[in-house]
Amino acid sequence: MTTEQVARTIGRTAPADRAPRLLMVLQPVQFLIMTNLTPEEYAWYATHRPGKIFRQVMFAELGAAQEEIAAAGQI
C-alpha cells in the first residue's frame, strides 16, 4: 500500500510533506523503524496490513535530537 492509501483507509488527509520519522517499537518485539507514515498511519498499517505480524503494537516516536537514546539502549 502507498502512504496515501493508508491515510485514506484510516480516514485522514495525507500530509502535504512526509518527513522521515524514527519509531521505537516496544511491544510485542523491540526494534527501530524509519518510516514516512504518521504515528496514526503506522499503528493502522502494523495491525491491519496484509501479512500483518501484530495484533497490538506499542511504540514511541523519537525526535531528531533523541536518536542517541535508541543507540545507547542497544550498546
Plain-language structure description:
The protein has helices at residues 3-9, 39-48, 67-74; strands at 21-27, 31-35, 58-62. It has a three-stranded antiparallel beta sheet, sandwiched between helices. The protein contains three helices and three strands. The protein has one domain (3-74). A hairpin with a 3-residue loop joins strand 1 (21-27) and strand 2. With 75 residues, the chain is of the alpha+beta class.
Indicate the mean pLDDT. Answer: 82
Question: How much strand content do the residues show?
Answer: 15-25%
Structural class: alpha+beta
Shape: flat
Number of helices: 3
What strand line-up does the widest sheet have? Answer: 2-1-3
What is the strand tally? 3
Please give the largest β-sheet.
3 strands, antiparallel
What is the CA-atom radius of gyration, in angstroms? 13 Å
Roughly how much helix do the residues carry, as a percent range?
Answer: 25-40%
Order of helices and strands: HEEHEH
Q: How many separate structural domains?
A: 1
Termini Cα gap: 34 Å
- The stretches of 5 or more residues where confidence is low (pLDDT under 50) are none
Brief description of this entry?
The chain is an alpha+beta fold. The protein contains three helices and three strands.
What descriptors fit this protein?
flat, three-stranded antiparallel sheet, 3 helices, alpha+beta, single chain
Topology of this protein?
Layout: H1 3-9, E1 21-27, E2 31-35, H2 39-48, E3 58-62, H3 67-74
Antiparallel strand pairs: 1-2, 1-3
